[in-house]
Amino acid sequence: MSSAEIAVQTFKTLEKEDLRLLQIIEAAMEKHEFVPKDVVVKFSKLSEEKADFRLSKLHKLRLIRQTKEPYLGYTLNYAGYDCLAINAFVKAGVVEAFGKLLGVGKEADVYDALTPKNERIAIKFHRLGRISFRQTVRKRGYITERASWLLQSRKAAEKEFEALKLVFPKGVAVPKPISQNRHAIAMGAIEGAELAEWREIPNPKKVLGEILRNIRKAYLKAGVVHADLSEYNIILKPDMHVLIIDWPQYVTCEHPNAQQLLKRDVENILNFFKRKRLLEIKTNEALAYVTGKGKMPTF
Ligand SMILES: Nc1ncnc2c1ncn2[C@@H]1O[C@H](COP(=O)(O)OP(=O)(O)O)[C@@H](O)[C@H]1O
Ligand SMILES: [Mg+2]
């Protein structure tokens, strides 16, 4: 079961105090690799007995991790962090109910959900950095991996949400940005499959043209380069229009590597069409077009 599945299933069984304990652990993780039980008890204002009961419940639900050495302490698991984001979305009226898992990637779990108005949305939980018990040895001695996954995952969500807010209003074909909390973003749900998954692409000229038009719009109108573009981050919808997803790596066009990243994005797409023997166009021509220096290549 993925962390998001654990979170979605257990969230409904959580009570206010459980969520409070998760929040306390989250906050104290900035200072402690494992938050000492005493600290949790102190901030919870619960009796030790009640706090113990809650902590063992959260542990059984796999929302937190426990260590006994060198002291009894706790840290959040991804599923625990997911629950905190879900709680925030529910409280803010963004989410009413969860549906099924839409995609599990290396760097994200994406869930289908419903808003209070019964609109379908997607919730993407970012997963970055490995959760590790061990300390990593670096040249300067021991540095802990304390909470780095938490921070990295949150940063990725913040960046992706920023990108969507920059490009969506300019008419770039992306899921509609709705909300962001911690490592999670809420966005419009889309249907279709990654370009890479399609056995056959019915009208490759039209599809490639649309992809290039969107890269151009993002670059010229929003000043944004995707920087992780490939056939895996382009969704071809049942109506044969495309959507570009997965934006946490974006850079603005002022970024020193922007041109290089833009070129790589375009090459990835052109190579896909070439490899599949669908079409071939020159990188330079496509690049001139997306940067506004040339016309749409004829193909
Ligand atoms: N808004 C969305 N609506 C429906 N499915 C989505 C949505 N966003 C992503 N997905 C699904 O989840 C998969 C992973 O999403 P993606 O953003 O590419 O994350 P990553 O590749 O980092 O794991 C996508 O390939 C797609 O199948
Ligand atoms: Mg992806």
Write a concise keyword list for the protein shown above:
single chain; 299 residues; Phosphorylase Kinase, domain 1; Transferase(Phosphotransferase), domain 1; 2 domains; three-stranded antiparallel beta sheet; 9 helices; elongated; binds adenosine-5'-diphosphate; binds magnesium ion
Structural description of this entry:
The chain folds into 2 domains: 3-187, Phosphorylase Kinase, domain 1; 193-290, Orthogonal Bundle (Transferase(Phosphotransferase), domain 1), CATH 1.10.510.10. It is built from 9 helices and 15 strands. 41% of the residues lie in helices and 20% in strands. The longest helix has 20 residues, at 148-167. The strands form 5 sheets. A 5-stranded antiparallel beta sheet has the order 4-5-6-10-9, sandwiched between helices. With 299 residues, it is an alpha+beta fold. Strand 13 (234-236) and strand 14 (242-244) form a beta hairpin. The chain binds adenosine-5'-diphosphate and magnesium ion. Adenosine-5'-diphosphate (ADP) binds next to strand 4, strand 5, strand 6 and strand 10.
Q: What's the helical proportion of residues? A: 40-55%
Distance linking N and C termini: 46 Å
In the predicted model, the low-confidence regions spanning at least 5 consecutive residues are 132-144
Structural class: alpha+beta
Order of helices and strands: HHEHHEEHEEEEEHEEEHEEEEHH
Q: Report the major sheet.
A: 5 strands, antiparallel
Which word captures the global form? elongated
How many strand segments?
A: 15
> Count of DSSP helices?
9
Which CATH top level class of the largest domain fits? Alpha Beta
- Name every ligand kind in the structure: adenosine-5'-diphosphate, magnesium ion
